[in-house]
Each structure stands twice: as C-alpha cells, then as structure tokens.
Amino acid sequence: xxxxxxxxxxxxxxxxxxxxxxxxxxxxxxxxxxxxxxxxxxxxxxxxxxxxxxxxxxxxxxxxxxxxxxxxxxxxxxxxxxxxxxxxxxxxxxxxxxxxxxxxxxxxxxxxxxxxxxxxxxxxxxxxxxxxxxxxxxxxxxxxxxxxxxxxxxxxxxxxxxxxxxxxxxxxxxxxxxxxxxxxxxxxxxxxxxxxxxxxxxxxxxxxxxxxxxxxxxxxxxxxxxxxxxxxxxxxxxxxxxxxxxxxxxxxxxxxxxxxxxxxxxxxxxxxxxxxxxxxxxxxxxxxxxxxxxxxxxxxxxxxxxxxxxxxxxxxxxxxxxxxxxxxxxxxxxxxxxxxxxxxxxxxxxxxxxxxxxxxxxxxxxxxxxxxxxxxxxxxxxxxxxxxxxxxxxxxxxxxxxxxxxxxxxxxxxxxxxxxxxxxxxxxxxxxxxxxxxxxxxxxxxxxxxxxxxxxxxxxxxxxxxxxxxxxxxxxxxxxxxxxxxxxxxxxxxxxxxxxxxxxxxxxxxxxxxxxxxxxxxxxxxxxxxxxxxxxxxxxxxxxxxxxxxxxx
Length: 553
Hints:
Blueprint: E1 3-7, E2 13-17, E3 21-23, E4 26-27, E5 33-34, E6 37-46, E7 49-56, E8 65-67, H1 100-120, E9 170-174, H2 176-180, E10 183-184, E11 215-222, E12 232-233, H3 265-268, E13 275-277, E14 280-282, E15 300-302, E16 309-310, H4 313-322, E17 331-336, E18 339-345, H5 350-361, E19 376-385, E20 388-398, E21 405-407, E22 409-412, H6 421-436, E23 441-442, H7 448-468, H8 481-488, H9 492-501, E24 505-508, E25 511-517, H10 518-530
Parallel strand pairs: 11-25, 13-15, 21-23
Antiparallel strand pairs: 1-2, 3-6, 4-5, 6-7, 7-8, 9-11, 10-12, 13-14, 15-16, 17-18, 18-19, 19-20, 20-22, 24-25
Helix pairs in contact: 6-7, 7-9, 7-10
C-alpha cells in the first residue's frame, strides 16, 4: 500500500494511505457546501498535484469522484485500523475465522427459521438466501399486534360495512388462504418477528370462523386517511436474496445478480471517464470491465448501433463506413410511432449482447457481468429518426426462470431518464408476461432508481384497476388479489406489498378493508395525466417459445 505525505493547514505533515476516512467538501442538491465523511480508495499523482478517489460514506457509489487536497479536512483524518494477523484454529495454520458478514447471515437465518417455525407448525429448512428487505412496506409499531388473515376454511362473507360516502365505494375480495401465506408481522430489515402477545386484560376480536372460500374486503374513499393496521410480507422459503439485498451465494443459473463478497478496490472505482454514444456523451456511474488499455482514454467511443467500443474518433469514423447496422440485431416485435422494441437472443447475437452488458454495467451497481449470454433474451427499446434506431434503454430476462423473474436487468440510459421511458420498459415486460400467460417479478435486488420506478408502476397499475371498478346491480363490485395479479401479470406478492406501501389495508370489525383517501385518488389522477407513453398491445407481434426444449437455444 503506497504511503503518501500530505500537508495539513498547520504546516505539519501526515501520511495519507488508502482506507483513511475524513470529511470531504462537496455540493449538495441545493448547491450548498457540505462535509460528509468519505473513505479514500485510491491516491494518484499527476504533474503538479495529487488526486484522491473518495467514496462518500452512506452515499450512492455513483457520487464517488477524484478530489483535490484542498477539499479534504485533514484535521479530522481517521487512519485505517491495522488488520490482525490470521489466527489459527487448534494451533493449525490456514484455518480462517468466519467473516463478520457470514456470522450475521447465519444469525439472521437462524432467527428467521426460529421465528417462522411456530407459525407453520413444523421446522423449516434454512433458506438458501433470505428475502430482500421489505422496503415497500411502511413502518409498524412493535407493540401493536397484527391480526392474521383467516385461512381458507376460516374466511367469511363479511357483513356490509356502512357507507361513508355515496360514490366510489366498492368491495375487494381476497383469496384468504393464499394471502395468509404472504401477510405476517415482519420488521423492516427483513427479519421475521413473532406477533406480540395481547396485553393482559384486553381481548382482541378474532375473525369469525365460517366455511366460505373468500373474504370480502371493502374498499372506500374517505375525506381523510383512516387509521390502518399494517401487515407485512413474510419472506418466501425459496427466496434467494439476503435481507440486506446482497446475495449470500451466486446463483448457478443465468442470474446477473452481483456477488458482492468479491468486491475489491479496483471494482469499487469508476474506470471510464466518459463514453460517446451517438450524439450523447455519458459519464459512467460505476466500474465496467472494459479492456484495461481503454480505461486510460479521456473518451471511449461506441458505435450506437452495434455498440462496439473503439479508442478514438478516427477509429469510430472508419468503423461507421463498414458497419451496416442501423438498428439492433434481432427481431423488431413492437413499433408504435417512433418507439420500437427489438428482441435479441443472447446466443445468436453474442457480441452485441456482451457489448450491451458492458455498457449497462457502467450504470448498474447491483449486477455483475457474465460473458455467457446464452441463457438470456435482451429487449432493446429504440427511438427512430432519419439516421436509424437509437438505443434508449433495455431489459434482459432469462429464457427459463424458476423464480418467475420476467426481468433480470433493466436500464434507461441517462439522457433518456425522467421522461417516462423507465415505466414503458416495465410495462412492456409485463405485456410479454401477459402473452406468455404468466405472472412475473423483477430479479432482486433492485437498484435505488429501479425500485422507485417499480413502486410507481405497481401503484399506478393497481390503483387504475380499483378506480375503474363499477357497481354491479347496485352491489359494490368485488375483485380478488388473484384477479388483480391475473389482469396485470404482476406477481401476487408484489400486489400485496404495493397495497401495504400505499397504506391501503385496514382491519375493521373482523374483516380486512381497503381505503382510498382523496389524496391518493387525486395524486393518482395527476400522475396518470403526466404519463403519456403507454404500450399498445395491438402493436405487439410476439410469439413466446418453449425454452425448456434445448433445441430452441
């Protein structure tokens, strides 16, 4: 590790090493000065000065940057702790102790197994991975017990709840047994918690026992948001994501989830300064494994049609005279106006798929890059003009997914973000699931921007269905969770978590109800007015394949 001297404001000299922490000056979103704590990942010397590559603690990695010494607060310099020598076990060298991360995982897995076993009535095997944090759920008070949904044999046809308003009131049925598997008490960090016992002297009314098959959940609109009993998702036994969003082990299928346990200083640092793609210049956010000789260039040039990377503008111009592509390779399966989607087989168009993954890795931190793209399909969204079809974004999916994933990676390129293209990509992925006759969910963990986009899409899609329900013969219309899932192709767990995120689920007089406040209705209407880009299913020409037959690969 290189040790470099640095001069403090008092004139003293200290040695700055990689791993030191200290406050660093940066501008916040309001363009005001702030001094967040940062870690020095690398130090380099250029003629006349020194530069430090810093990672701001508790900030997204895309904000990492090279800074000059004048932005460092040397008075609060924290040196890295010395690493202890590897202890031996039973006097034998080479036996390493378990890492703190693995010990935490073991503890969380044990807590999950212990907490969920009594509710199932049997001992559960330790899952391969723990579920991702239930970030879609709202906070719950640990002292408030949450009633469980009644089982299939315990569900009842609820009595008619007195109308609060004369308009926009309707019922929502829920397949109680199915939903019961998904609704339980869960802390927001993903670890299961047993329901708190009732306080002495208090009796909580339990749902009545009856032989019905559905529990009717009333849906009303209130002038003000009503009080609500929150319920939380139980982590699935076969879920393969850890509670902190970090996979405990890499999946052996075609997953692109990153195994973060092998991160090092090299992959934590951005290695490309700038990318020129067509008429846009992009500043990468994260590391991408482009060839080492290209990382020292001030600008990396890409052909916007075949995505081949070149080292100079002259090489790009020469390449364009020979490149015949004016659109992504593969089949155009959707076109409406200037928007088109191309389906690309990762086996038939391997070079393009690998180049696409290299570009996408510059803006995706939670995914890794496998050069074996055979198990994947890539759906590239383009915008057409007189020069050709220009890439806007893409998503990939496994040809065969045992976890019902309909998206592996999804990305809208930065020049096209905040213009509705992200939701269009998500809507298109679910449109494909509808044609396939399946429900789907994105592969976890999602990036911060991806999670926001999916939250917004799920909320708008579900609220759109609830708002469009009409009374039936004077009765309030009824719909089940499964009906919503089948209509939208959104997986049932995502439907339930979205209702929780919107804080719509309430428990009243022995039954679950959904309440739509005026604020939610008005906010939904405003959001839908701004959403101009939508997928037209009539413009989709797509025939799903049975990828279980290897001959189709």
